[in-house]
Amino acid sequence: MKVTVTVNGAEYVRDVEPRLLLIHLLRDELGLTGSHWGCDTSNCGACVVWLDETPVKSCTVLAVMADGRHVMTVEGLGSGTSLDPVQLGFAQCHGLQCGFCTPGMMLTARWLLNRNRDPSAAEVREAISGQICRCTGYENIVRAVLWAAKNGGTE
Amino acid sequence: MQVPAQVEYEKATSVEHAISLLARYGSAARVLAGGHSLIPMMKLRLAQPEVLIDINGITDLCYVNLTGAELRIGTLTRHVQLLESQIAGEHFAILHDAERVIADPIVRNWGTVGGSLCQADPSEDLSAAFAAMKSTMVIQGPDGRREVSAREFHTGPYETVVGPAELLTEITLPIRPGGGSGYQKVARRTGDWPVGAAGAAVWLTGDTIADAGIGLTAVGATHFAAAEAEEYLRGRTATEETLARAGEIAAENCRPVTDQRGPADYKRHLACELTTRALRLAVARAHGQAA
Amino acid sequence: MTGHEIEAHETGPYGSIPRKEDARFVRGQGTFVDDISLPGMLHGAILRSPVAHARIVSVDVTAAAAHPKVEAVLTGADLAERGLAWMPTLSGDVQAVLATDKVRFQGQELAFVVARDRYAARDALELIAVEYEPLPPLVDARTALAEDAPLVRDDLGGQAGNHIFDWTAGDKAATDAVFSAADVTVGCDMVYPRSHPAPLETCGIVAAFDAVTGRLTLWSTSQAPHAHRTLYSLITGLPEHKIRVVSPDLGGGFGNKVPVYPGYLCAVVASMVTGRPVKWVEDRSENLMSTTFARDYHMHGEIAATADGRILGLRARVLADHGAFNATAQPTRYPAGFFHIFTGSYDLQAAFCEVTGVYTNKAPGGVAYSCSFRITEAVYLVERLVDMLARKLGMDPAQLRMRNLLRPEQFPYTCATGWQYDSGDYLRALALALDIAGYDELRREQAERRARGEYMGIGISFFTEGVGAGPRGHMDILGLAMVDGADLRVHPTGKAVLGISVQTQGQGHETTFAQIVAHELGLTPDDVEVVHGDTDRTPFGLGTYGSRSTPVSGAAAVMAARKVRDRARLVAAAMLELSPDDLEWLDGKWRVRGDPDRGAGIAEIAMAAHSSLELPDGVEGHLDASAVYNPPNLTFPFGAYICVTDVDPATGEVKVRRFIAVDDCGVRINPMIVEGQVHRGLADGIGMALMQAIVFDEDGNCLGGSFMDYLLPTALECPSPELGATVTPSPHHPIGAKGIGESATVGSPPAVVNSVVDALAPFGVTHADMPLTPANVWRAIQGRPVRPDLALS
Fold first, then answer.
1. CB–CB of B249/B232 below 8 Å?
2. Closest alpha carbon to B129 in B224, B271, B221, B254
3. Which residues in C lie closer than 8 A to residue B195 (C-beta atoms)?
4. Which helix (H) or strand (E) holds B86?
5. Beta bridge pairs of residue B261
């Protein structure tokens, strides 16, 4: 069936099977491979993207459910050549190692900072608690988000 | 990555439309709300519906409001909306307690209250919370609307009274004087299903328990409730001993099974411990002594 | 050690600089295997056994092959025709690629479907009909050697039972004598349960065979691309120079991506059969149920000591569950890996261990998951025993360790099982950890809380690792010695490209190896580009696991850079019309002795080396150099960890409140990255101690087949770590570095368990097996512990 999805500000029209998962629409149909998947059970959060105004796990959303909606992926963070403070924070604070969970983590971080300009470390931990990182032990992710909050955290 | 089998898709634009679609497709159809229970089941091919009826467009099922002496929750309400609803928290702290420990913030953004209840997982937190609150489930079908007590809603694991052409549309919770409530859960890890969990509500007259509601999940409690313990509490003074005894009665009457989350004896022990703790919290809140 | 003393080692381009690789990752521009899409590419999916043990009666793929989007279906019989139904494992056993006779574990590979898209490939699996004749499964390793145990490996000629190997280390007679004479002995059965490394990216491959050129190109999740290339050649018979293995960005590995898996070979064959590129990427359940697991050691350990707390000896007996195929990835001569470093960090008179390996109907593997080749199990054993001894003697566990730790003057130290520890200052590391923790204050707090009925635990562990395998004389995998090469090219303008054989999975090699070369050549890290993960562009080596990148490949990079520097000296001498002896390397340049303002840096020298400058006889032009590094010994990192927990005995819930980690990995190239590695390992330790276990039911069903039941710690279970560092350089490594990748994974689990057991001391608990889930903790308090490896016990 035909779906119209706006991704990172650009409108895409695609004819898809109803069973197509949103993550596969993004990765396989639109070539936006910055979003990853790490499990099949909505436990790991590697696939987190924004659906309209909130982060969701795109391995557990059908592409047809995004029809008429806006999606933001890691490719839509920052503007043009400039990076979002969250992206800068992750690089500055060694908030990533293998980089696989990073896009999802950053999208959740941006959402948190839009709602909470000055989060505590505990609030950052709560916000990312549905996302698994196997490399950092989370400590430097927390530091990265706090760095972003301090250095121009809101859009 | 696991992927669902072929499925047809219909987008419902209203409750009536959803019901007519459900009537048309019968048991071949499944209602798709947040999909956070259904889609993983479809990916594992444990669920293979022929048609999905997407109700995410029925935004008038997204609400948490106060009407008279009732809190009304639309079933398309996302978990995050219930968690952030001030009026829900003010009158039913148990709902915020429970929502805070359901899955994780990202899942709560999209998963729905109605979806959780209709999935009817025997370890569902909200089922216990609504059972404790003696809520009412509003179901709509081709012949109109009917109301079912939360304690008659589930007919077994993954089964409810909602018929093939029916839709759960609302949960209502009566607000009664002297009330306090709380929810206690033990999980293997943040975001996991409970090993055991208990929700409790009390309605006090002075120090006397005028009425009590106890919901239990993951421990094999009939209808997610501990009716015998509630009966024991009614009319008694809310002392530590009384609450502890109620916990014991709740534990005696549940039928937990051993699984990867823990052995049955431990779960029975948790039923006792967490019932007592939830009651303690509910009483403190009813007295205004706890947040 | 003061910060000032550390700085003395970590100078110049060493230090905490941001990583070069992050620029692409924060933009979502990493390239992982599943991101690769080639024209005409097909998608593979594997049909797996739903049961643990059964004879295969028939496999009917007719309906699947008739699916309109299916291009090919491979079965074991198809592979057998090509001689590829079985493949060698990294331990010299054989493993079924696609089963032909029996299935031997739940999740074993049976058939491979190739279709035009991944959804269709998955659909077609449902169309394959397999008839099984059920066989009794062997699930409990402790019954594997019983007379009536089901026989797992009837395919092996001469294999009468499920026994794989017996292996011993140390002096049995001397150890028994020490135990007989000791005042005090303590023993305990303990299980290190099966776990899985579970990198966030699962394993996968894109195989592209070009029938015209005969070239096979593989983009795969490989921690060891060169070793894989050799293996593919040996297995398939394709000439090795026609095979190129590319390991692009890896989403973690931790040992999971060391072996060659059946799915990889299926994709290779499928590409040959269809003439098109074939992608196969496993899903999470496939990853957890079929790829290499870790641990699964059933141990009995004993410790002997004098009445006043002098530790004398250690004894261990281990039953090792290796699953259905012996597919551990470890140096060939060590069937139990480096477990015999269970002598730990203490001055012992004698030690002896014996390990028996057995087959069971479980997924194959055995050494994976940041374990330093089984040192994880060894450290757990010894550190639990030391705590038990402290309890028995009524001594403080910190004091007991201080009493027995090796002293600086004892290094190099040859332990009772033959390892020669290179360097260490153990007392300093433990003292620093105790200081950061505020140990005495913690003990006071614990006493106060206990008086109030609150249960807080303080757990210590001290570990010594041996990493950087290894000396070629006695460490190889499948005959390939564990040495690594480095190629360093210096362009005319003095910018350098370093090719390395090891494979980052997040460790930041593109940054740290650039720092290494920059440090040697007076360049900046930005001047050095690091190339890895492409066998056509990099020198041979055995890859990244066992914390061997810096100890082995890092040393190779240093040696190559020093060759460049030596040649640069000759060129500089020609430039300056001086004798090489007149020059000294000072502050990143060759300078004239006594006239340091005169001299030349690498950039000027490189241009001269490429110019028409007349060079002395025997001096080649250019500055490029390569090196192969054969480590003289392992390096021995160490550390002292302290974990503080709060335990609710009524629910069994454990909260890790604090984690203090002092690590000494020798000279640190990039302390920021070192600390990141420690953070990771602490999360591993908390995960393994509290929740991560692959458990089986009595039918051999894997109960940890998804992230819903194989639980990994989240940000809410991991505390903010409190780190400290000491720097004791390795005397034999060219820059004194030791390796850090696995230290915290090795060292932290016993700290957590010691902490929980300490919290539960008032209940008389002396040991509890991992994972310390709420249920297991509660059952330990009841005195009715649960078998952690089996469900429903």
1. yes
2. B224
3. 774-775
4. helix B86-91
5. none
Long-range contact pairs involving B210-214 (C-beta distance under 8 Å, separation at least 24): B210/B178, B210/B234, B210/B235, B211/B176, B212/B246, B212/B279, B213/B131, B213/B132, B213/B133, B213/B134, B213/B181, B214/B132, B214/B246, B214/B250, B214/B275, B214/B278, B214/B279
Q: What does the alpha-carbon distance between residue B162 and residue B22 come to, in Å, rounded to a whole number?
A: 12
Q: What are phi and psi of A131, to 5 degrees?
A: -130, 135
Burial grade of B100 (CB within 10 A; 0-12, 13-18, 19 or more): middle
Claim: this prediction has a pTM higher than 0.90 = yes
Mapped to the 3 state alphabet, what secondary structure does C506-520 carry?
Answer: CCCHHHHHHHHHHHH
Phi, psi (rounded to 5 degrees) for A20: -60, 130
Tell me the one-letter amino acid at C75. T
pLDDT digits (tens, 9 = 90+) for C659-670: 999 999 999 999
Residue A71 corresponds to which tokens in the numbers above? 């999606």
CB C102 within 8 A of CB C307: no
- Find the mean pLDDT for residues C291-312: 97
Does the distance separating the beta carbons of B263 and C786 come in below 8 Å? yes
Contact B9, B38 (CB under 8 A): no
Determine what percent of chain C is predicted with pLDDT higher than 90: 95
Do C321 and C296 touch, CB atoms closer than 8 A? Answer: yes
In chain A, the largest separation of any two C-alpha atoms, in whole Å, equals: 45
Distance of CA B134 to the CA centre of its chain: 11
Note whether B4 contacts A: Cβ–Cβ < 8 A: yes
Instruction: Quickly state the pLDDT bin for C366 (edges 50, 70, 90).
Output: confident
What is the spatial distance between Cα C560 and Cα C233, in angstroms, rounded to a whole number?
28
What are residue C20's phi and psi, to 5 degrees? -65, -35
* DSSP-assigned letter for residue B224: G
| Amino acid at position A140, single letter | N
In this structure, are strands C583-586 and C589-592 parallel, antiparallel, or unpaired? antiparallel
- Within 10 Å of residue C571's Cβ, how many Cβ atoms? 28
Is A102 in CB contact (< 8 Å) with chain C? Answer: yes
Cα(C520)–Cα(C502) distance, rounded to whole angstroms? 20
SS3 C350: strand
Rounded alpha-carbon distances, angstroms, from residue C748 to C238, C443, C607, C684, C757: 44, 20, 50, 8, 14
Burial of C587 (0-12, 13-18, 19+ CB in 10 A): exposed
What's the one-letter identity of residue C566?
D
Asked if B139 and B166 count as a contact pair (C-beta separation under 8 A), the reply is yes
Contact C195, C288 (CB under 8 A): no
Say whether A99 and C680 touch across the interface (CB within 8 A): no
Is the CB of residue A106 less than 8 Å away from at least one CB of chain B?
Answer: no
Subunit contact C786:B190, Cβ cutoff 8 A = no
- Position A155 scores a pLDDT of 44
